[in-house]
Amino acid sequence: MSMRIGYACLTVGVPNTQLRTCILKNANEMVLQGLTQSNLTALDHMLDYNIKNEIQLLRISSDIVPFASHPEVEFAWQELFHEQLASLGEKARNAGMRLSMHPGQYTVLNSLTDDVVKRAVMDLTYHCRFLDALGMGSECKIILHVGGAYGDKKAAIKRFQDNYDLLASSIRQRLVIENDDKIYSIDEVLEIGLDCDIPVVFDNLHNAVYPSEQQKRESEWIALSSETWKADDGPQKIHYSQQAEGKRSGSHSDTISVHEFVNFAPQLPAACDVMLEVKDKNISAVKCILATAKIGKIEKLEEEWARYKYAVLERSPQNYKAISSLLKDKSSYPVLEFYDLIEKSIGTISEPGKAKNAALHVWGYFKDIATQSEKRRFESLLEQYREGSATLQSLKRHLYRLSEKYRQDYLLQSLYFYDV
């Protein structure tokens, strides 16, 4: 098995993959049933996208069934959506896709407060039941942080271990723990993992922000973590992210720098699953998959270029021409050069003249089919943007609505609308 690369919770820049929720006071059974149906349909579209793009690792959002673990909400989601959940799980398994979930920061198993621990167990139970409802095996994990220190880390670790032992076996066989960026370093988590027989996920950015007092290379921590994974747990998982420039320490970057990832990848075991934690989610996952492919096909880069081209044109017509030229040689696979030019372009602030030019290119899809009022609206927004009285977002929203109305799938898949 080769390395698999995936992303967490949301699929961005892809139509019909948005998740929906509501506030607690509106969470009656009818509303929750509608939201869950919508979210499971969105998950189905995510799976289809992942299969098409050879993404075999996905973390499902905890909010897929809104308020499923809330003590005041009664909703028989497992029974109501039994067939759909089973079908989704079958689709994922047939594609060789590994699924996981990651409860949020308020799921704390070692809290000093009994009610917090009780709610943590309820939340873990929900996550376990969801993966069970999909029919996923024990290799599909629930990732958890150890929790707080509460002024006495040894006592907090003991409390985690004691509470872990009380969990149902169905939860224990799915639970894995990871190092965090503030309280529990990788050596401490490894000690807990070995004591309790829990697989350990190594998080590279957390380790950089809150390193162990033991001086070891990342490759050494990855190797030590691998020893906590048994055959039934599936391949070792790690979390990979990069520091966002100019933001607080530990903040995830908007995108994964392809060169930085390619330099990191050789230290990973051949059979290793890498969960990217990054703002642009699946976009970076595809990038990293293509950049580390053993046999690269230029057709894959051409498919990606179709999604990026207007986003690049909006920022750098020079790089737009350079990439178009780069892809002319059909016998080549210039993946690093391709993404280097894209990253440089996307990191550039759009200038009005360039943005107007890109908008006119996109408008070309509609100029012969749009109504007179739609044409007038476009011309008005374009002029207002040129004068500074309208935003580029308002102009692009108009173009996006036209893409939906006239079913321009090529444009709907475009990252030109990523920030709309």
Task: Explain what the structure shows.
With 420 residues, this protein is of the alpha/beta class. It has 3 domains: 4-291, TIM Barrel; 298-346; 352-417, no CATH class. It has helices at 29-52, 77-80, 82-94, 114-133, 153-165, 169-172, 186-196, 204-209, 218-226, 258-264, 282-291, 298-315, 317-326, 335-346, 352-363, 372-387, 392-405, 409-412; strands spanning 4-9, 57-60, 98-101, 142-145, 175-178, 200-203, 236-240, 272-276. An 8-stranded parallel β-sheet has the order 3-2-1-8-7-6-5-4. Helix 12 (298-315) runs antiparallel to helix 13 (317-326) and helix 12 (298-315) packs parallel to helix 14 (335-346). The radius of gyration is 23 Å and the shape is globular. The mean pLDDT is 95.
Question: What's the quick description here?
Answer:
The protein has 420 residues and is an alpha/beta fold. It has 18 helices and eight strands.
Strand order of the largest sheet: 3-2-1-8-7-6-5-4
How is the CATH topology of the largest domain named? TIM Barrel
Query: Biggest sheet: strands, sense, closure?
Result: 8 strands, parallel
Average pLDDT: 95
Can you identify the CATH class of the largest domain? Alpha Beta
What coarse outline follows from CA principal-axis ratios?
A: globular
What is the CATH architecture annotation of the largest domain? Alpha-Beta Barrel
**Number of DSSP strand runs:** 8
pLDDT < 50 runs, ≥5 residues? none
Properties at a glance:
alpha/beta, 8-stranded parallel sheet, TIM Barrel, 420 residues, 3 domains
